[in-house]
Write a structure and sequence with these properties.
The structure holds two protein chains of two kinds. By secondary structure, chain A is α+β, with helices and mostly antiparallel strands. In chain A, about 35% of the residues lie in helices and about 20% in strands. Chain A contains 19 helices and 20 strands. The longest helix of chain A is centred in the last third of the chain and has 18 residues. Chain A is globular. In chain A, about 60% of the residues are buried. Helix content of chain B is about 25%, strand content about 25%. By secondary structure, chain B is α+β, with helices and mostly antiparallel strands. Chain B has two domains: about 170 residues, 2-Layer Sandwich (Uridine Diphospho-n-acetylenolpyruvylglucosamine Reductase, domain 3), CATH 3.30.465; about 100 residues, Alpha-Beta Plaits. The chains are: A alpha+beta, B alpha+beta. Chains A and B meet through β9, α9, α10, α12 and α17 of A and β7, α6, β9, α8 and α9 of B. The structure holds flavin-adenine dinucleotide. Flavin-adenine dinucleotide binds next to β3, α7 and β10 of chain A.
């Protein structure tokens, strides 16, 4: 639904490229030879659709789009791109929020969604081998009957792919206790920009050599395309306790979060929602959230019976010490599911309120949560915008959400100005640019606020070891002037031109 | 006024002096605790040896982070953290923080303590050019830019000289107990328990470390009783001297006596794959494409090959 809202005005946009030109393009001829004609798309509609992802950014310009089914096909596409000096952009479900999958430089877009096979579930090694196009939640559903799940659970898990999770090192509510994607990836088959196929990492405890696996996770599609992934599978916890704590102020909720961690409890999840969000959610799905609380904290502990009871009790106590006006323990699985439904449909609820929203993503030290949250409200007010907060409080990961209608004159400028101030406030509080969405094109221009030119130069050295020609997802992550690719020229290519 | 300092910039005189000491010319290596001196090859003769700066800079228990300089001993750090009820993933086996990260070896109980490679949040290292480079960030969650901290763990200081790091800390569970039984199967133990911190086998005896709330550990002990006659023991067994990296499935095969790996007498960590054997693990040559990428990385980060010369991760 979100993507539809974002794209509704865009899918009809076409590019001025005739069929003859496509036929005459030797690159496309090579792609067709490597795959099959029906899996190489160069029509305007496909190219327009895949010129966007779920971010608010425009300016993408896709070349041909390919849908490989095997590693060999991906390698052939990479090799063809190398031969023809063309750029490549890997793509999963396109739910990225930082513009990572937006094609710059008229690249071939390699959509791996057809590589969606769960190859093997190997409980002796505690892993599953999956294709990059496997949808996150589909893996967890498959593992359920065996008593396992895939721990990273982005709110987009019904659609996003595991390849995308790897590329963005994605998180989710339950990554507080279980760690983000990186902690759950043991090995990966990768097609390098040269077309060579390589295995990074391994199933053994300490694979020899540099941790290239670790360097690849979170590289936002700039180091190659992953075609097969060994993910750690996590045992389901027999007991779960889910609490909903209500507060008169967001500050009290934030202080409770710090208090819980300080007490030596690492819950499975701690999510905070402010009043605007809870009201929107109530109107949308009736999850049982209080409409009159300034903020609610959804806290979950899991494990064995005795321990979860102790921890749940202690969390309730810490909440009360910090002014909780109400503490509710989900009494049944249904009630628990409903509380989570509210959290997980927050974005759907928002879509009912305004045609467009911009979801930000920064992290601050937990002790600064309350202070920075207040700043986000002040910033929004200064820019005459509506802002809501629903976020992974347990790890300090803020998600200020700005609602707007893109048809309003000048609103985008205000949205971006407010976003920049939120980033500044987060960095000033000792935080970082992104907790899970990545840099993409969204935060490139802020990278030199966090990193010196030496720091950025070293990131680029990693990039160039994998992709000396800077042809894989060019124009992302590292800002102009520090990157191997000249981003300016990538952006200024007229839309009508192939390359 | 000069350009505003970037968020990860440092003006700590100790780090600046260290950068100067590393300098930009001539072969240089850090001597930590020398507990893993032979890892990755033999240091080229004539290499200047220096020591990394020391000291715990800041422990923030409610952020679950600690900032510590690379020359600090793991023992000192863990003693300080324990006073606040926390610990890190680094193994308690002597040596320094920088050494432990550069070697990247995990605690045998990594199931319960996370892996070293995920514990490093932020790194400040001195580059081959003598510059201080920062990567990662101070918060427990962060995806800002390329993940150089991951690359630094296990890099043997061949890409940069570790100066100061921020590590994730974890609460020390209220209770920790070791139990052992002869004749139990580690697979059964892993299936019967929810989250053991370690399951070790020497082919005859299985040792299990359980951590958590006392009542939870009691419940786990009761479940252990269904797969063997476990009795309380003081701790883990003595370990043979040679470290092996195998897959978790290969440890199960070792236990069953059907393994092609000639470890000699062994203690292996089920669910993890670490093994200590009485014979050394044969060399594990890198795949040629991995080796090519590794050489390019080394070339890009240290063009003159001055950092820890003679050594390379995965080297002899
Ligand atoms: C409603 C909503 C909620 C969200 N909630 C969360 C959340 O809770 N936590 C979170 O972390 N994120 C969240 N996201 C962001 C997004 O869903 C994640 O980043 C997700 O992992 C992206 O997966 P994807 O398949 O859509 O990747 P895409 O958007 O298609 O691509 C993302 C990046 O990955 C690269 N890529 C994709 N496949 C490959 C591959 N096989 N090899 C190499 N590179 C590849 C692309 O080039 C691009 O840079 C949310 C997004 C939405 C719309």
């Amino acid at each position: 639904m979100y993507r539809y809202a974002k794209l509704r005005n865009r899918v009809t946009r076409t590019f001025g490229m005739g069929a003859d030109e496509v036929a005459a393009d030797p690159f496309i001829a090579d792609l067709v030879a490597a795959l099959s004609p029906d899996r190489v798309k160069s029509d305007g509609a496909h190219r327009a659709l895949l010129s966007h992802d779920a971010s608010v950014f425009d300016g993408g310009n896709s070349g041909p789009v390919v849908f490989p089914e095997t590693t060999a096909e991906v390698a052939a596409v990479m090799a063809a791109a190398q031969t023809h000096g063309r750029n490549v952009v890997p793509r999963g479900a396109g739910t990225g929020l930082a513009g990572g999958a937006i094609p710059l430089g008229v690249p071939v877009v390699v959509a791996v969604t057809k590589m969606d096979e769960i190859h093997e579930i190997d409980t002796d090694n505690g892993i599953a081998w999956v294709g990059p196009g496997v949808v996150n939640l589909d893996l967890t559903k498959r593992l359920g009957p065996l008593g396992y799940h895939f721990a990273p659970d982005p709110s987009s898990q019904q659609v996003c792919t595991i390849g995308g999770n790897v590329a963005n090192n994605s998180g989710g509510p339950h990554c507080l206790a279980y760690g983000v994607t990186n902690a759950h990836i043991l090995a990966m088959e990768v097609v390098l920009p040269s077309g060579e196929v390589v295995m990074l990492g391994g199933l053994d405890a300490e694979p020899a050599g540099y941790d290239l696996r670790g360097a690849f996770v979170g590289s936002e599609g700039t180091l190659g395309i992953t075609t097969k992934i060994a993910v750690r599978i996590t045992k389901n916890r027999p007991e779960v306790r889910t609490l909903l704590l209500s507060f008169d102020s967001v500050t009290d909720a934030a202080n409770t979060v710090s208090g819980v961690i300080a007490a030596g409890i690492v819950p499975a999840a701690m999510e905070v929602m402010d009043q605007r969000i809870t009201v929107a959610v109530e109107n949308y799905v009736n999850a049982g959230y209080p409409r009159d609380a300034a903020a609610v904290l959804l806290a979950e502990v899991d494990g064995l019976a005795a321990g979860v009871d102790l921890d749940a009790e202690r969390i309730a106590e810490i909440g009360r010490e910090n002014g909780a006006t109400n503490v509710k323990l989900a009494g049944s699985d249904e009630e628990r599911a409903l509380l989570w439904k509210g959290r997980k449909t927050a974005f759907g609820a928002i879509a009912q309120l305004a045609p467009d929203y911009y979801l930000h993503d920064t992290v601050v030290p937990r002790s600064k949560l309350a202070e920075v949250l207040q700043q986000t409200y002040d910033i929004a007010e200064r820019h005459d915008l509506v802002i809501m907060n629903v976020f992974h409080a347990g790890d300090g990961n803020l998600h200020p959400l700005i609602l707007f209608d893109a048809r309003d004159e000048g609103v985008l400028e205000r949205v971006h100005a407010a976003g920049a101030e939120i980033i500044t406030a987060s960095l000033d509080a000792g935080g970082v640019l992104s907790g899970e969405h990545g840099i993409g094109v969204e935060k490139q221009k802020f990278m030199d606020r966090m990193f010196s030119s030496d720091d950025l130069d070293h990131q680029n050295r990693l990039r160039q070891a994998f992709d000396p020609g800077c042809r894989t997802n060019p124009g992302k992550v590292i800002p102009t002037g520090h990157s191997c690719a000249d981003i300016q020229s990538l952006r200024s290519i007229p839309k009508e031109v192939w390359a | 006024m000069t350009a505003a300092a970037t968020a990860l910039a440092t003006d700590d005189p100790v780090l600046l002096a260290f950068a100067e000491e590393v300098g930009s010319e001539g072969p240089v290596a850090v001597a930590g605790g020398r507990t893993r001196w032979a890892t990755g090859g033999t240091l080229t003769e004539g290499t200047r040896l220096i020591a990394a700066p020391t000291g715990i800079v800041e422990h923030l228990p409610d952020e679950m982070t600690v900032t510590v300089r690379a020359g600090t001993s793991v023992a000192e750090l863990h003693a300080a953290l324990a006073a606040a009820g926390q610990r890190t993933a680094l193994p308690d086996r002597g040596g320094t923080i920088g050494g432990a990260l550069a070697v990247g070896e995990n605690d045998l109980r990594a199931l319960g303590r996370e892996r070293v490679r995920t514990a490093l949040l932020q790194v400040r290292y001195v580059s081959a050019e003598g510059r201080i480079v920062a990567s990662g960030g101070p918060t427990v969650k962060n995806v800002s830019g390329f993940d150089l901290p991951r690359l630094m763990v296990g890099s043997l200081g061949t890409l940069g000289v570790l100066a100061e790091v921020i590590l994730r800390t974890n609460p020390i569970p209220p209770v920790s107990r070791w139990l052992a039984a002869e004749g139990a199967h580690p697979r059964d133990v892993l299936e019967a328990t929810l989250a053991p911190s370690a399951v070790l086998t020497d082919g005859t005896t299985v040792w299990v470390e359980l951590e958590g709330h006392a009542a939870d550990v009691d419940a786990e002990v009761a479940r252990l009783g269904t797969v063997g006659s476990f009795a309380e023991v003081d701790g883990m067994p003595d370990l043979p001297v040679h470290r092996w990296s195998l897959t978790p499935a290969e440890v199960l095969a070792l236990h069953e006596g059907g393994s092609p790996h000639d470890t000699g007498a062994f203690v292996g960590a089920a669910g993890l794959g670490l093994v200590w054997g009485s014979t050394p693990q044969p060399a594990r040559p890198l795949d040629p494409t991995v080796a090519m990428l590794s050489e390019r990385l080394k070339q890009n980060f240290d063009p003159t090959g001055r950092l820890n010369p003679g050594r390379m991760p995965g080297g002899a």
